[in-house]
Design a protein that fits this description.
The chain is built from twelve helices and 13 strands. The protein is of the alpha/beta class. It folds into two domains: 141 residues, Rossmann fold, CATH 3.40.50; 200 residues, Alpha-Beta Plaits, CATH 3.30.70. Strands 6, 7, 8, 9, 10, 11, 12 and 13 form an eight-stranded mixed sheet that branches. A five-stranded parallel sheet has the order 2-1-3-4-5, sandwiched between helices. The longest helix is centred in the middle third of the chain and has 38 residues.
């Protein structure tokens, strides 16, 4: 039976005794034939270091203490920057506690006493290779988790991405109905701007404006669902819902409005004659959220009439001469921290039912509210 199920793992044996090479080859014949791991041999410490430098695949070193040119302790000292990657087994005919303690203090993984006995040799080397394999698998898992987290961070704020990873909500991204708040942002008169300046400057403008706007959304546990040229669709509450989703969305909208005012004061020269303004519509209700597409291209998105309503509220900001419009469910969910004034419109295009609409004036910090 092989010591390991998977491989190959490369083992370097550094020993000046000629018989040791044959002992290892005979002791691990089946593992060598099965490709579990392979052996490299050096007769002294200097030669061993050269082999290590040229063979980064080495994961286990069996190291004699008494050798010419460079003994085992000097070799181990030279490995200190790599000792975390290597599992070093010290072997010596002098199996006293002083040598064992000195080897372990230098970072050795285990110890063998000469003359080497087959069962002890196989068990100790097998344990070292198993520990190296465990380290490699753990490193792979960490790399995979980081990769998955980076993918999630394309959709969600960093804290939401971490929460998804921590609680295993990633399966919910397959698709289900959610209570969510949708924020639809549009840059006013973008077509006029695009006609007045070159396309490269249009891209430069968006690359100046969007990163800060996106951070204002992500910093309030929102997620960037889509960027459609001069528009951003953001979601709050998918795939993880909280009681503050509506409030966070409205607070983000007010922060964006304030940011745009500051941006206009320091806008680049090519925008000198153009005042940047945005319109924002926010709605709250039920949407379908999940991965849409094929194995070639998959996108986590939200679908439902709620998204259309947010877009139409945004369009109404132009007619009502306000920057932020929200619907009744958003105001109810956000609570008294949001101050508004009602906006009277006859109807919203495509909506048969009445929609209560409010213009947002200010947002109080939740922490500053008195709780009765």
């Amino acid at each position: 039976m092989s010591i390991l199920e998977h491989g190959p793992y490369t083992i370097l044996v550094v020993d000046d005794e000629p018989d040791v090479r044959e002992l290892f080859l005979q002791s691990f014949t089946s593992d060598i034939e099965n490709g579990t791991f392979s052996f490299l041999f050096a007769s002294n410490g200097k030669q061993g270091l050269e082999i290590l430098d040229n063979n980064p695949a080495v994961r286990v070193v069996v190291l004699d203490i008494r050798m010419p040119a460079m003994d085992g302790f000097a070799f181990l000292d030279a490995l200190q920057d790599r000792i975390g990657h290597l599992k070093v087994i010290m072997s010596t005919a002098y199996g006293d506690m002083k040598n064992i303690r000195s080897a372990m203090n230098r970072g050795a993984f285990d110890f063998l006493t000469k003359p080497l006995e087959l069962p002890d040799l196989q068990a100790t080397v097998g344990k070292a290779v198993g520990a190296a394999r465990f380290d490699d698998e753990r490193k792979h898992r960490i790399e995979r988790l980081v990769e998955e987290q980076n993918i999630l961070k394309r959709y969600f704020s960093e804290d939401v991405a971490l929460e998804i990873m921590k609680h295993g909500h990633s399966d919910r991204m397959i698709g289900e109905n959610h209570t969510a708040t949708i924020l639809f942002l549009d840059i006013r008169d973008f077509t006029k701007l695009s006609e007045r300046i070159p396309a490269m400057q249009v891209a430069e403008f968006l690359n100046l404006l969007y990163p800060d706007i996106m951070e204002l959304i992500l910093g309030r546990r929102g997620s960037i669902n889509k960027i459609i040229g001069d528009a951003i669709v953001a979601t709050f509450g998918v795939p993880i819902h909280s009681d503050k989703d509506a409030y966070n969305a409205v607070e983000a909208a007010v922060a964006i409005r304030d940011y745009v005012e500051r941006f206009n004061k320091f806008r680049p020269p090519f925008l000198e004659d153009f005042q940047i303004r945005v319109g924002i519509g926010i709605t709250t209700g039920t949407v379908f959220a999940g991965n849409i597409g094929s194995f070639r291209r998959l996108e986590y998105t939200v679908i439902g009439d709620l998204v259309n309503t947010a877009s139409r509220l945004q369009n109404l900001t132009k007619k009502t001469y306000v920057d932020i419009l929200i619907d009744g469910p958003t105001l109810a969910a956000a609570g008294s921290a949001v101050e508004t004034k009602p906006v009277r419109v006859k109807s919203i295009r495509g909506k048969s039912e009445r929609v209560d609409i409010y213009a947002v004036t200010t947002v109080k910090k939740k922490d500053s509210l008195t709780i009765f």
